[in-house]
Structures are given as structure tokens and as C-alpha cells.
Amino acid sequence: MSKSLAIIFNKAPYGNQSGRELLDIALMAAAFDMEISALFIGDGVYQLLTNQQPDILHMKNHSSTYKALELYGIETVLVSSEDLEQRRLSESRLMPVSSLSNHKQINKTIAESDFVFML
Amino acid sequence: MVVRIDLSSLPRDKQGYLTDSSLWNEAVAMAISQEEAIELTEDHWQVINYVRRFYEEFNTSPSIRPLVKYLAKEWSKEKGNSIYLHLLFPDGPAKQATKIAGLPKPARCI
Amino acid sequence: MKTLYILNNPQLFEQCTLAMGTQDALLLIEDAVVLSEQQSSDENHFVLEEDLIARGLNSGSSWNKKNYNEFVALTLEYNKSVSWL
Questions:
Q1: d(Cα C66, Cα C74) in Å, to the nearest integer?
Q2: What is the ipTM score, two decimals?
């Protein structure tokens, strides 16, 4: 049976490289046929905002790579509705790549995964 | 009329991938494909163009699985499969098509 | 004596604002710009525009925006700057 991996995004993009590095891990693990979930909690929900333009900071825009998750076979992409609400964000401001979820469901996914990554 | 390109004048990494994808054009593709011992047919060009589109859309070079899915969806169900792609690019479709398309090597190419 | 507080860590908003006096101002930069959608604005509250644009947050914030040049002018307007990291 294939191993499962939960990747937790919990920081906003561009202040550090964690979003981009976690994405690399996700896409690499996908090549090994692992069962992967990408989970967006806390300030990690900002990773999914539309209209990011980091070129203004001379940084590479990794946000469009989130749209490729499905092509890499990563279908469990969950975002915490509580954390969105706390940040006054509506789902309409996010790229259409994730499903709205909640802490309870996300915690369950983490508990059921063989490996968990967060940077 | 074929324009000959001197590949040694282009910045490339050790494995022959262009380090600046904006320097790519069709003449560069032909020169790299010669190195790879591939004669480019219409279907090769289709794959190369879709690989470049993938990179523009997702800001990453595709590995084989997402490339197959993408081609099946965007191009052709019959041709977007790994057997056909291996016939076109015998050393590995993701590896060779991205090189000829002037893109970085897919980080997770195994 | 007025001080410009420059905050880049969204976790430290309360700690930073507690340290501020009435004449002081706050500028959010880098990851802390997300706070400009969560906290109410104030005339002494500023946010770096380039960092908002980079993150797709430019339209949602009601805070006073400063671009890089205005950021420099702002540091000159205050007696000193404190970077809250």
C-alpha cells in the first residue's frame, strides 16, 4: 500500500521560501505515487490568493504552480474555512484549486497521514 | 532555409538545458534536437509547444505524469500517452522535450 | 520624539502596537502586510504597497499605502525607526 503524506502550508508567501519549497516537495513526492494532501491553514491560506505579482519584488511567482496540483495527481487540497474567516477572506478570492474544509477535517487528515511536512 | 545555431554561444547547464528560456527559438530547438539525435516531426513540435505552454501556465517544467495528463486533455487522447511520447522522445519525454523546448530540467525527473 | 515601527512578522502585531506611543507610526512590510486586511486602519498605520501587490492583496486593504520611495520619505519624517522582527 502506498504511503500517505500531508503537506501543511501555514505561512504567507514571499516573506520566506517555505511555500515554494513545500510545493517542490509535493510535486516530487507525487512522482513516487504517494497519496498526498496539501493543507492550507493559518496564514498559509494567503498562498492561494489570485492575482499575486511577486515579480515586483523580483521573485518567482510560484502561485500558478498550485493550479498544476491536480495534474500531478494531488487531489486532496483543503483550506481551513475558520482561518479564512478569521482573516476576512472569502473563497472567491482564492484560485479554484482547493476545497473548503475545517480544522476538524484537516486535523483528521494529518492524523491519518504516514508523513507530515511543514516548514 | 535552415538557420544554423552555434549552441556553444548559448548559456546552458551541464546537462544541456538552457539557463534562460527567453533565448529559445525554433532554430535553437532544432540544434538541441540534433544533439539528442531526434529528427523533429510535426508531433514533436506539438509536444514541444504544449510543454512550453505548460511552463507558462504553471511556472514549472512538467514531469512525465502531469505532461501525459496535460497532453491528453489539451491535445489528443490518442497521442497523450506515455508509450507514444517515449517513441517520440526515447530518452524520456519530460527530460528531452523540456530540453528541446528551452526550459529548465524538471526537478523531479526520475 | 516620534518613532516609526516597521513590522514584518504577522505574529507580533499586538506586541508591537503595545510598545508604540501616541505619536508613533506603524508600517507593515513583507509577510506582515496581511494584517492590513485583519486590523482596522488608523491615520498612523501604513502598509508597503509593493508587498501587497506581490501577494495579491492590493485591492482588499483600507490602510494607507506607501511605495518604496514613500517608505524612505517616511523614515526621514520620524526621528528613528524600529524594526520589529
A1: 9
A2: 0.89
B14-100 CATH: 1.10.10.370
Residue A94: CATH number of its domain: 3.40.1260.10
- Which one of C32, C34, C54 has the shortest CB-CB distance to A54? C54
Q: Is B20 on the interface with A (CB under 8 A)?
A: no
| Helices B42-58/B64-74 angle, 10° precision | 110
Are A78 and A98 spatial neighbours (Cβ–Cβ below 8 Å)? yes
What is the CATH number that goes with domain C3-84? Answer: 3.40.1260.10
Q: Which of A50, A57, A88 comes nearest C37 by C-beta?
A: A88
Residues A43, C31: C-beta atoms closer than 8 Å: yes
Q: What is the pLDDT of residues A71-119, one digit of tens each?
A: 999 999 999 999 999 999 999 999 999 999 999 999 999 999 999 999 8
Point out the residues of B that are catalytic: 109
Name the pTM for this structure: 0.89
